[in-house]
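Try this one yourself first.
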């Protein structure tokens, strides 16, 4: 196994997304087309037209699976799930428990999908990927944009009428997704992938300052943007769900555990216990992916047995439901 990337359509195992100071720098994703319902885009929301490639392990891909599930888009948008362990050619399809082979392009490796879309592709081979079966190309591979499309543009095809981007909260939701991205969602990676003490300490300090801040916010309201679940909660959830099992140990995000935060822990259980979210969660894929695939962090590839976490334990977030508005 080695982390790799494509250069002009050729696979290489050199992977360096760190700056001179040892800080992790994430490269922006390349496919940024949009499916829109307004008729202006060549990508129209049509049942059966799009296919989603994900890893259950990946927090970014997990966002898209949750949105697909919450909106009731599972019939309209098909899914393939890669093997949790990165191969020396990157994400791979297999018949491993929990994985779903590629029934659309019959690929063995995810890189084949990228090369179909662009034979001269340069960049990382990442999940999630939204594939258009009609135009035979990748529409988009940026999780934040994919969840927005599922939420807003696929409404006609959605069997569940939940709106996670309500008009009156839109600005707040966008600001919140921005606010949590660098210190929290990417912060755990900045901590775990740092190759200097300084870069690590900066990332981990910012991470916990921000967790502390949201702990206070969640003392006053049930969700990040108020009294209803929004896209921002989905973005927060996939990081928090992995926190104690992976980021605390493997990425050294260990000033505190998530379970040590009363509000964040109860908030996490509340979200997890939503039936449409629970079905998308797979800690086995998550743990094996990080601990086995990231040999630069964990060379002996030992997957820890613990910690024991009970996500089913009763949460106390219902206390906000009875609050007068
Ligand atoms: N910006 C992307 C990030 C996606 C991403 O980094 N995915 C990781 C898995 S967690 C991946 O596929 N990594 C494989 C690699 O870099 O080779 C998004 O939010 O969709």
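Now uncover the answer:
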């Amino acid at each position: 196994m080695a982390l790799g990337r494509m250069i002009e359509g050729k696979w290489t195992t050199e992977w360096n997304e760190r700056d001179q100071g040892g800080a992790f720098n994430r490269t922006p994703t390349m496919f940024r087309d949009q499916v829109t319902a307004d008729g202006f885009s060549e990508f129209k929301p049509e049942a059966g037209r799009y296919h989603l490639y994900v890893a259950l392990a990946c927090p970014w891909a997990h966002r898209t699976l949750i949105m697909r599930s919450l909106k009731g888009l599972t019939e309209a948008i098909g899914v393939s799930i890669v093997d949790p362990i990165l191969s020396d050619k990157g994400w791979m399809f297999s018949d491993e428990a929990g994985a779903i082979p590629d029934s659309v392009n019959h690929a063995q490796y995810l890189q084949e999908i990228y090369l179909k879309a662009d034979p001269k592709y340069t960049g990382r081979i990442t999940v999630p990927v939204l594939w258009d079966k009609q135009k035979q190309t990748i529409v988009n591979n940026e999780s934040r944009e994919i969840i927005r499309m599922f939420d807003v543009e696929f409404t006609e095809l959605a069997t569940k009428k939940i709106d996670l981007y309500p008009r009156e909260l839109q600005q707040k939701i966008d600001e919140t997704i921005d606010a949590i991205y660098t210190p929290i969602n990417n912060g755990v990676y900045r901590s775990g992938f740092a190759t200097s003490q300084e870069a690590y300490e900066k990332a981990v300090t910012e991470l916990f300052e921000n967790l502390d801040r949201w702990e206070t916010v969640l003392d006053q309201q049930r969700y990040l943007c108020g009294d209803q679940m929004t896209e921002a909660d989905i973005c927060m959830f996939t990081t928090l769900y992995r926190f104690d099992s992976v980021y605390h140990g493997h990425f050294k995000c260990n000033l505190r555990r998530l379970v040590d935060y009363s509000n964040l822990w109860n908030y996490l259980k509340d979200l997890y216990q939503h039936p449409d979210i629970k079905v998308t969660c797979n800690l086995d894929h998550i743990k094996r992916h990080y601990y086995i695939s990231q040999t630069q962090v964990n060379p002996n590839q030992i997957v820890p047995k613990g910690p024991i976490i009970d996500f089913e334990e009763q949460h106390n977030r219902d206390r906000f439901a009875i609050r007068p508005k």
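Discussion: The pocket of glutathione is lined by residues 3, 29, 58-60, 90, 124-128, 142-143 (CB under 6 Å). The mean pLDDT is 95.
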